[in-house]
Amino acid sequence: MTGMGLKGGLANVLERDESGDVDDGAGRPGGRAVSDPRATFERVQRRLRIELGEDLYSSWFSSMMFEDVSGRVAVVSVATPFLRSWIMNNHHDRLRALWQQEIADLISVEVRVRQNAGARPKTVPQARPAEDIVSAAPAPAAAPARPRAGSPLDPALTFDSFVIGASNRFAWRAAREVASGSGTLPFNPLFVHGGVGLGKTHLLQAIGHEARTRGRNVVYLTAERFMTEFAAALSKKTAPAFKEMLRGIDVFLVDDIQFLGGRVLPDEFGHIVNALLDGGRTVVVAADRAPVELDAVDRRITSRLASGLTVEVGVPDYETRLEMVGQRRAGLAPREAAAISDEVLAGVARMIDTNGRDLDGAFNRLLAEVRLGERALDAQSVPELLSYLVRPRDLSKVRVEDIQKVVARYYNLSRQDLLAARRQKNIVLPRQVAMYLAKVLTLRSLPDIGKRFSGRDHTTVLHAVRKIEEHLEKDAQLKHDVECLKRELEQL
């Protein structure tokens, strides 16, 4: 039936008995008469366009064509298998309901993939300029440009060059498992989150490199690049080809998902991710915060992204930082490496306690001194050389309210939970951490801090501060949590 097109469809629906009913092929009337199937299809299109909105309709339904009404089944076609799969999974029931409003006895709507995917739809979209209408025998159109398959991978960002420490070991293991494609762990997608410069991009690209060595088709994109390329595909009317390209991949890597903004493109991204996951493809995304904290991204998307495994890349400890700068030195020429002593590296690792990018900047400053400077490097010169990288803490800018909000979010609580009189362990510890941070990061007095914690006495605040200080010396997890919270508060 697909090759018959509109002409074949008209012939079928005109073959009806004298009562005006369509013959269902067994001598029985199968529905009310359809005098003009083209007009029926166009009414369905108009209603679908109104319900979905112009952007969503144009993206997913603009290539849909009427093929046939056979018995009690309406047949339409689309350009690619990906479009058919998405329509069947997301809008088939509504499409059938709209057809049934026109043909009461219609049983179903069949969505096919056109054999001639380059064929132009036989219906004229609403409000389409007359000059865009092409005659029945158009000249052969040039093939659309093939969409670019993402961004190139940095050859330096591999698993071999990734420095493993306590703050990132679990994320590294998860990334290796995903890259291997062994499927021994039941999680997909993988969501990697952490602050700036902590290695999220490195892990994503390392996954890409490893997966490619195993013969898997990989696409790596930043969220910004995805929005730019998809918007261009929409404007050039090549969105179906763009989606079909993504559908054919094995591993989809998306970085900086927190920048996925707007109204239409996040929806399109969500549809593509759902289609890939439903098709058994691997999806890995990275963001600067956990899925639940991505306020600018639609909850339906973050919920699906969080349905696999979420891992955090934390702030590197001293040993990891020391190994990072040691790795940089190992890549230098022998004369340059000899000019940067172990004591100098130790000084850098102690002074720069933020992230890998700041460590790279610090090391580059040392290297410049070796290559361009006229003095020898020693541990005493490190603070002077790197002072521009250490931001002095302005305690007057840190507010107790900000501390309460950040701590509550970190421990998956509400600010009201933190301030309430409840004494459950999962609330008491975060409350004591918040009081401790209020003491060390602000200029507020103990009575003033207590006042901002629902009027608590200053002795309660003092007890909390001493309790946290005591446990910081022996509880590595608490120390890690407090350092992460400090970094986040200092970036406000």
Report the CATH C-level class of the largest domain: Alpha Beta
Question: Widest sheet: strand order?
Answer: 5-6-7-4-8
What is the straight-line distance between the termini? 62 Å
What is the fold named in CATH at topology level of the largest domain? Rossmann fold
Helix content: 40-55%
Share of β-strand residues? 5-15%
Major β-sheet profile: 5 strands, parallel
Structural class: alpha/beta
How many domains, as an integer?
4
General shape: globular
The CATH level-2 architecture of the largest domain is identified as 3-Layer(aba) Sandwich
Q: What do we call the CATH homologous superfamily of the largest domain? A: P-loop containing nucleotide triphosphate hydrolases
List the total number of helices. Answer: 22
* Total count of strands: 8
Give Rg in angstroms: 31 Å
Task: List low-confidence stretches.
Answer: 1-33, 117-148
| H/E series | HHHEEHHEHEHEHHEHEHEHHHHHHHHHHH
* Mean model confidence by pLDDT: 78
Quick take:
With 492 residues, the chain is of the alpha/beta class.
Task: Describe, in plain words, how this protein is organized in 3D.
This protein is of the alpha/beta class and 492 residues long. It has 4 domains: 2-124, DnaA, N-terminal domain (GMP Synthetase, Chain A, domain 3); 169-312, P-loop containing nucleotide triphosphate hydrolases (Rossmann fold, 3-Layer(aba) Sandwich); 318-389; 395-490, Chromosomal Replication Initiator Protein Dnaa, Chain: A (Orthogonal Bundle), CATH 1.10.1750. It has helices at residues 5-14, 37-52, 54-60, 81-90, 92-102, 169-180, 200-213, 223-235, 239-247, 264-278, 299-305, 318-330, 334-338, 342-351, 356-372, 382-386, 400-410, 415-419, 425-441, 446-452, 458-472, 476-490; strands at 65-70, 73-78, 108-113, 190-193, 218-222, 251-255, 282-287, 309-312. The protein has a 5-stranded parallel β-sheet, sandwiched between helices. The N and C termini lie far apart (62 Å).
